[in-house]
Design brief:
- It is a single chain.
- By secondary structure, the protein is mostly helical.
- Helices cover about 70% and strands about 0% of the residues.
- The chain is built from 11 helices and 2 strands, in the order ααααααααααββα.
- Strands 1-2 form a two-stranded antiparallel ribbon.
- A hairpin with a 5-residue loop joins strand 1 and strand 2.
- Helix 4 runs antiparallel to helix 5.
- The chain is elongated.
Length: about 200
């Protein structure tokens, strides 16, 4: 059993090697080949990366969704986030054909900061769920503590305006500084789409 798992991990790492920007052997086709070999035998990280490769390289959104769902079924937090994102954007599925909120919620409970930030946004604006400033702050704060810069900015806004938490100018300043110092992440769908742009368009 251990030997078989080690073999799958080796295949997954081969995919990582061929995908890496720093690798002199970078080759997306070979990365997909090795990820697929491991994914088809149940390696959860290979499943997720195989789906992500389809997003990055302009592959099939339906194929990406297939592998994200397989990874999500095995508890992969980020896979839940990307399923929610695909549902919001109508990538490989009919837009709004199924609610993205439950997928974000599952990912957030598994500790994914991007989905925690999404829940903060939804509770703040009242999209997809009734507005709740306290619940919004709670999710933003969880993500901010994990270093998510968008959440850090929103926590600063909450403290500055007293939304869901008592006003505190010192705390607001602290979180603004942290957000400014942290690089903003990019969703690898279209390769240059920021999370903020993604949420604002849904």
């Amino acid at each position: 059993m251990a030997a078989a798992q080690n073999h799958l991990t080796a295949q997954y790492m081969m995919g990582r090697l061929y995908e890496s920007e720093q690798s002199p052997k970078k080759d997306s086709s070979l990365a997909e080949y090795w990820y697929r070999k491991a994914a088809e035998r149940g390696h959860v990280y290979a499943m997720f990366n195989l789906g992500r490769l389809h997003d990055i390289n302009g592959g099939s959104p339906k194929e990406a969704n297939l592998w994200y769902r397989k990874a999500a079924a095995l508890g992969h937090a980020q896979a839940h986030f990307y399923i929610a994102h695909h549902l919001d954007k109508g990538r490989g599925v009919t837009r709004g054909s199924s609610g993205s909120f439950p997928w974000h919620y599952k990912a957030a409970l598994l500790g994914d900061p991007a989905s925690q930030t999404a829940l903060g946004e939804y509770y703040s604006t009242g999209r997809k769920t009734p507005p709740d400033a306290t619940e919004s702050f709670r999710w933003y704060y969880m993500a901010a503590q994990q270093g998510d810069p968008m959440a850090q900015l929103e926590v600063g806004e909450c403290y500055a305006a007293g939304k869901g938490v008592s006003k505190d100018a010192v705390e607001a300043y602290k979180w603004y500084v942290l957000s400014e110092a942290t690089p903003w992440p990019v969703i690898p769908i279209g390769s240059t789409e920021s999370r903020r742009q993604s949420f604002e368009e849904t």
